[in-house]
Design goal:
Nucleotidyltransferase, domain 5; globular; about 325 residues; 5-stranded mixed β-sheet; single chain; 6-stranded mixed β-sheet; about 20% strand
Amino acid sequence: MDPKILAIESSCDETSASVISNGKVLNNVIASQSVHHKYGGVVPELASRAHQKNIVHIINETLTSSGINKTELDAIAFTKGPGLLGALLVGVSFAKSMALALNIPLIEVNHMQAHVLSHFIEEPKPEFPFLCLTVSGGHTQIVLVRDYLNLTVIGETHDDAVGEAFDKAAKIMGLPYPGGPMIDKLAKEGNPDAFQFPVTSMPSLDFSFSGIKTAFLYFIRDEVAKNPLFIESRKNDICASIQKHLVNMLLDKLEKASNQTNIKQIAIAGGVSANSGLRDGLRKKGEQLGWTTFIPDFQYCTDNAAMVAIVAHYKYKKEIFSNLSVSPMARMPLDVK
């Protein structure tokens, strides 16, 4: 059988759709929302309104560019969670309505599982088992992946996500939103060893980023008190230094996880996996430790429907379907067995 599935992603501020046919992703259409820039972060109510405005156009464009008529679809997939509840509700409601109208199955997808399985959209693909560091504005996890539908979180943040730490550091410096990519851009011209920050480490494979955020805040406050032009005069060095510190926190735990599990197939995923410091750091760490590393294409780092489609493909093969009573979940555990 050659299942054709339409996938919808609406967990945050990207409205996205994708069609997958027999495991091959045919397209990946994304509409981003610029309205949030002037607020310095995603405004949930504005995000849900933008999804309502964009979703019909995005679905039509996706079906047209795939060359597949809606009557040829075998299932509709959607992101159930985690994410912004209002934003998720738009995608879930549309998927349920379309599946009901076409009388085809409905497939719910965990957003974080989709990030992990984004590595199976294109070659090269990791072999099982592998470890995946999922890093974004809302999540920081180390996931043990035994199979497409068998994932276990073996380490996660106890407080803030690393993406939030990047954005907070940028906000403290007065950089424009989105702050994480701006730090990455400025860091390329800076000295990563210019400034040192205290190391906060959990005894397990878990993370904590609240301490480094506080330390960075006090560091900037004290330096600006001595020199009001400190941020402007050392902006590149500050960005390079905080980026190196956060990346090292991630890679140190990933190395520990690899040692504990004896797994050397290592991947990264999620929005922060687009960070050049993390991508370069993983490559170097892999060369040092004999890892086989997997870094997603940039288009699959941020929220997108292609990654939802690939999860749906493997769920369809197992006939794992949802019913019309399904509801979105702002918080949704990743562990899948």
